[in-house]
Amino acid sequence: MNELALKYGCNPNQKPSRIFMKDGGELPVEVLNGKPGYINFLDAFNSWQLVKELKAATGLPAAASFKHVSPAGAAVATELSDTLKKIYFVDDLELSPIASAYAKARGADRMSSYGDWVALSDTCDAQTATLLAREVSDGIIAPDYTDEALEILKTKRKGNYNVVKIDPDYTPAPIEHKDVFGITFEQGRNELKIDEEMITANIPTANKFFPEEAKRDLLIALITLKYTQSNSVCYAKDGQAIGVGAGQQSRVHCTRLAGNKADIWWLRQHPKVLGLQFVDNIRRPDRDNTIDVYISDEYEDVLREGTWQNLFKVKPEPLTNEEKKEWLAKNTGVSLGSDAFFPFGDNIERAKKSGVQYVAQPGGSIRDDNVIETCDKYNMTMAFTGIRLFHH
Asked: Do 133 and 152 belong together in one domain?
């Protein structure tokens, strides 16, 4: 099959809509269930490239959670701590490596991952499908599915959950095209290989040490950025993205947005958050949103009379600004990637507030000296990759 009709394009008024192979060859994907749409396939193809590259770069199973053609989270399979299992709400499940990777990818920013598109580098097994079955999600792409996993996924969304299988050996043409306003753009595909040498070849800071965990996390950050709508910045720790700032016009706004998400990820691990006692029948999205509000400056809205009783068995004590500040100071060893150079040291100042110790960015600003000086002030290690990663 070289053509697949879609319900409509980005919006219902955009018809007709299809995906097809211009050269008349076979589509490298097979729809096993559901009827994916235009945006679904944009997410599917971008997210698949991300996890395939993550697996190649790290040797570990990888997963991504995509929304609107940018990752809400991406991760590789590493052992989850008891705390992470609890904040990702998987402490009641047995997790395979690929299931662990998806639990981390989804757990980074659970609010943004609501209704996500899932990508897996490896075969989707029953453990991953069981985890996915209870989350709100639009679809999944993977190189294969076990029979049991496929049966589980077919129960989602009244049997209409989108399940796509992709040929892992498919290689696209080296030249790609895109039509905008009736005009065709042409460019070479971004085949750039992101590897450890890119991180270690040019380190302009006084501190030149990258531990192995930081190298891995910077690979995750940079590969994630390669498939994130620009401008973009990514914070990573423990084998996963913990904050992605996408599609901002200002570099520092990317850094702030991603940093705020990284802070929420860390605050979700505060003992007071772990101790929240939700009512038994609370919906998963309501619980996730309530946690985000609880750790924000709007927590009084949750705790006021007439509200908390609908959410909690016991009225929780507020998480004070002093407690949040003290807890955030404990987050260290975070890695930060940027898809283009930092024009000023203010990005580093903001990154420091979220525990960043390791940085990878292209370099090339007329104010590189200011950025290096700011890193040196905090004894950070920074790599100049020399490579821009814009994605549009």
From this structure: yes
